[in-house]
Amino acid sequence: MVGAAAALIAAPALAKPAPRRVVSLNACLDAILVHVADRGQIAALSHYAREPVGSTISEVAKTLPFTWETAEEVIALRPDLVLTSRHSALATRNALGRMNIPTALFAVPESVGASLDQVRDVARLVGRPARGEALIARIEAAIAASAPPPGARPLKALIYQPNGFAAGRGTLMDEMMTRAGFENVAGRYGLGKWGNVPVERLLADPPQVLLSGVPVQGSRTWADRVMRHPALASLSGRMVQAQLEEKLLYCGGPVLIQTAAALGEARRTALEAL
Length: 274
Fold this sequence. Notes:
Strand content: 15-25%
CATH architecture of the largest domain: 3-Layer(aba) Sandwich
Distance between the termini: 39 Å
């Protein structure tokens, strides 16, 4: 779906030379942009890019301009390309359209292939296709390195994100779990793409591995409540619990390099405990 983004771009964005002032309004697009664009091309990232809990590029983002996603801020930056997503503020997107500012609208990738297409599209749009291909090669290598040995039996697993949702079939995280040697068992709890699994269901039919995002210090998220529920102690020896940083659970692109490594480590740790 992301490969179709080119069809959503106003004609001026396709003109040569490469855009000189690029604004990103999405955290996942931020991460791609800083890897493929020249620093001088980046007019601003989203404010989410600076949040250390949710962003893998927070330190770099702190050295770059940012916006709060308002149309006024973006227009004042005089961009010649704005990267947006379907989660970007609709009012801002509409205002940019009225001002004839070239924009590219991206969907949330639901597979590794779609995520790699997104990297390729962003790199092409900023005039740096070779960097996009180099980044794709790194992502593919990291995913391959996280794969279990041939013939290894997948570990049955469920993953909870801090927002309370478990990732089901047809999601990017589902594919990443599969590639790292897990079998996503969300479907046996009645989940579609996303949903919640009550603790009672986990107790009655536990997966071998329960993965969750690490909660923000001082907060109590849904995933945290599930992982700390005292009743889960009864599953010791039958179910292993592991945590992944929240910033590794939401985005594709270069974030998949770290996500693959974390899932691979979680699998090795689970095998030692089971």
